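Anyone have tokens for ABC transporter ATP-binding protein? Sequence:
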Amino acid sequence: MIDIQRLVKKFDDFTALGPLGFTFDQERILTVIGPSGCGKSTLLRLLSGLEAPTQGRIRLDGETISGPNPLISVAFQEPRLMPWLTVAQNVELAVWDRPDAERKEAVQAALVKVSLTQFADALPKQLSGGMAQRVGLARALVGSPRLLLLDEPFSALDPLTRVRMQDHLLEIVGDDGPNVLLITHDIDEAIVLSDRIIVLDGPPAQIRRDLVVDLPKPRKRSSREFQEIKELLLADLLPERIGALEEAA
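Reply: yep, here.
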């Protein structure tokens, strides 16, 4: 589905990313983690077509991405809702160019996916943080994208709401939802959700580890297998911590 080859992104003399390459096809959820400033958000902006690569290319189903693509949708860290519009109207913004009947049907279907049909006429100020984030997801889903890009979508939520949203994302993706590429700093979140995890290091962003997470879902965070994967990822992200633990032992 997505094929990235020799991708490089420079800002003047600063190389933010690459060369980097990987393919993304079979996995339902691919998560990219890495330290702050390593190039995760740059990668997402390149995939979304919001930035153009300096070198290399990104292909979706064999076609080079050269700008925003209707088959690729993005949900950001903040839901970015228009405060004067209702929930339904905020979702409708993403399909404004469709005929009326088709647009309303798509909005209704998207609100069903995120369990917000009863709040269609509510204003953003009447929503909790988790509900506002679900509106953002609905807006990203309303156009039936093939690939959904999520940039730290749950980081501003309290811990319990965050867990609920993680579970809800798994329900949305299911067997017939879009493939998801998720950017997060949360290792537990990455392991809970992902079929595959890519660890970036940088700048410039380079792949440090490419890991298939072969655990049945839903995943138990306290399980030995879960904790083993967590320690493996921590060793990539915080090698000094592992060294300190080895010295203490």
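The first helix runs from residue 40 to 48.
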